[in-house]
């Protein structure tokens, strides 16, 4: 992106500790056009009264998170609708920047790398501060959830034994011999082929553009069409298939706590409070259970989110 593409924010929000104070923070506006064609002049409070549109990326977990956001918002009296499966980060971030959606569930480390490819922060608090500085002025990053879901790169137990693989560094022993499978974006992402080359000096025989922790890449790994696959750490299929998650000694993959990204023009107190309440009770273990209900038990993500939100008292009685 050109250096003059976006003004930078200097406000800093640091994780769960900021949750209690979040509702009191003033919203920033840059004359964003709302979904109803109105504009904010920056002189008054932000307003979610017209309702929020929650967008999601095109994989199971992000869809679940989008529906959870909507349930939590409705529980606080905020109207919300969901536009699921819009695409990859390369699609959904421009969508929220352009005002097509108002709210987006994201992942700290990968989101920062989207805006700053040379970012070196890996710890959750550092990432939160860096995101607050890097996001366009029209957007805000709210306190992150307890839940975290990191990109992991896995091999079958057989492949791990055959090549003596325990970490990404061990892949150097197979340099140029293994086939890599993941979403198309992995070809140019730091958490992907770029990172393997720059952090571990590892290249692969072939790259197969499939999906992110989805049926295509997992099917290819089972069949042996790929040797190493990009999955998510909360994916229930990892343990079910006895796949080996390789270690990351050089911290190629930063912390990936779930974090809401919202348009400043609609980030009022009810929105902040609702998402802070959700973030405080949404743990990694709970997120893994929700993924399993959808991916393994084939339940609808909106139903799963609604049931979980009610169980955790996030919805109105």
Automatic annotation (TrEMBL):
GO terms for molecular function: transmembrane transporter activity. InterPro entries: ABC_Gly_betaine_transp_sub-bd, TAT_signal. The lineage of its organism: Bacteria, Bacillati, Actinomycetota, Actinomycetes, Kitasatosporales. Residues 52-310 form the ABC-type glycine betaine transport system substrate-binding domain. Pfam families: OpuAC (PF04069). Residues 1-26 form the signal peptide. Keywords: Signal. Coiled coil: none annotated. It comes from Streptomyces bathyalis. This is ABC transporter substrate-binding protein. PROSITE patterns: PROKAR_LIPOPROTEIN (PS51257), TAT (PS51318). GO terms for cellular component: ATP-binding cassette (ABC) transporter complex.
């Amino acid at each position: 992106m050109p250096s003059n593409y976006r003004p930078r924010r200097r406000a800093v929000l640091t994780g769960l500790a900021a949750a209690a104070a979040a509702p009191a923070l003033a919203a920033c506006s840059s004359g964003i056009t709302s979904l109803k064609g109105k504009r904010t002049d920056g002189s008054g409070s932000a307003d979610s009264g017209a309702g929020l549109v929650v967008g999601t990326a095109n994989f199971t977990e992000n869809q679940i998170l989008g529906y959870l956001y909507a349930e939590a918002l409705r529980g606080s009296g905020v109207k919300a609708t969901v536009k699921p499966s819009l695409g990859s980060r390369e699609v959904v971030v421009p969508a929220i920047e352009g005002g097509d959606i108002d709210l987006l569930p994201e992942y700290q480390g990968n989101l920062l790398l989207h805006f700053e490819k040379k970012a070196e922060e890996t710890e959750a608090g550092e990432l939160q501060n860096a995101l607050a500085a890097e996001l366009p002025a029209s957007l805000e990053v709210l306190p992150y959830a307890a839940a975290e879901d990191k990109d992991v790169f896995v091999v079958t137990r057989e492949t791990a034994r055959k090549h003596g693989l325990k970490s990404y560094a061990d892949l150097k022993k197979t340099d140029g011999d293994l086939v890599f499978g993941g979403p198309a974006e992995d070809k140019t992402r730091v958490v992907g082929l770029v990172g393997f080359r720059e952090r571990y000096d590892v290249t692969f025989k072939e790259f197969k553009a499939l999906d992110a922790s989805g049926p295509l890449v997992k099917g290819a790994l089972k069949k042996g069409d790929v040797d190493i696959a990009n999955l998510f750490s909360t994916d229930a299929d990892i343990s079910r298939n006895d796949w080996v998650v390789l270690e990351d000694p050089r911290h190629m993959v930063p912390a990936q706590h779930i974090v809401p990204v919202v348009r400043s023009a609609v980030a009022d107190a009810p929105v902040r409070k609702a998402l802070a309440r959700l973030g405080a009770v949404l743990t990694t273990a709970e997120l893994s259970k929700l993924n399993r209900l959808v991916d393994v038990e084939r339940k609808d993500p909106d139903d799963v989110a609604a049931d979980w939100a009610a169980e955790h008292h996030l919805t109105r009685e």
